[in-house]
Amino acid sequence: MDVLIINEEEVKANLQMKDCIRLLEEAHRLLANDQAHQPLRLAMFPPMVNGILATMPAYIGGDNPIMGLKVVTVFPDNHKKGIESHQASILLQEADTGRTKAIIDGTEITAQRTAAASAIATKYLARKEASKLVLVGTGVQAHTHLRAISEVRHIKEVHIWNRTLSKAEKFAETYKDRFSITVHNELADAVRSADIICTLTHAKEPIIKAKWVQPGTHINAVGSSTANTRELETELVVKASIFTDVEESALNEAGDIIIPIQEGKLQEMPIHANLGELINGTHQGRSSDNEITLYKSLGVGIQDIVTANFLANIAQERGFGTTIQM
Ligand code: NDP
Asked: What is the third-level CATH fold of 127-299?
């Protein structure tokens, strides 16, 4: 049978952030309406390597039903070899027969869909006039988050902090013609400037303190998405209203949530709503201009599968991709 292959360059050339945000809204709406399905991801942490491998299967119904699987690895030291820390491949299987439809690079899709999910959270949770964006970390996700958050709010100031200052300066150089961008030596100074904060690091211990975060801030906590690592200190999580992509993932995989619960400082069911409930309007989102809203992002399979299927469906018309015989 024919199987379509789409490589990373083709994904980059044909996936627009606007489309990615729209696709994820639809996928999370379907999930909230019981028209999509996904188990928790299965991750392995081989003790002999500094890396993890996770598998993320998902089914999506609606007008373009599809199922598939993302395999993603995270090797934080890859940068020393000039390779991105996240590497991924996505396998699509037809929803009615199970036959293999496509194999698609998942590295760029992971970079974009994660930021698209944060943009959706920001659209529903940040104050309407929020215009000061703080990026904590300046790796792959910082680039896509800058693009994604700019799709949903008018960003007037960008403040950045990175563990390695020189990389923050390089990041700022890239965007200085498009944004008013400030590099901070002190993370506290960056965080105090924020309407919207995106935490995008591999930190294992909390780096963001509650006392730095102003009332009314919206936080997208994206990094350190495993059960025993976190970016936010307990006091911040306790005083925030917590939202997530999928509650089951947050309660099983997010150190930012699990550790405060284990410490007895956070109630056992602390999630106000999933993305799907914000999208379909069953939760109102932010309730006041002083509330600190926290979107804990884990990243889920429906986000990858819906984006990969969109690319597979437009490939023939736009003339990209390679078909092979399996
Ligand atoms: P990159 O490897 O490209 O960048 C990592 C960033 O983390 C760099 O800015 C790095 O700083 C910083 N960093 C690493 N260790 C620490 C530390 N101990 N303290 C503070 N900063 C640190 O990663 P990505 O941009 O691809 O991913 C960022 C985070 O987002 C990761 O934790 C990743 O696992 C997570 N992620 C989450 C997803 C989701 O769906 N929720 C999906 C994809 C990624 P420096 O430049 O100094 O090395």
From this structure: Rossmann fold (3.40.50)
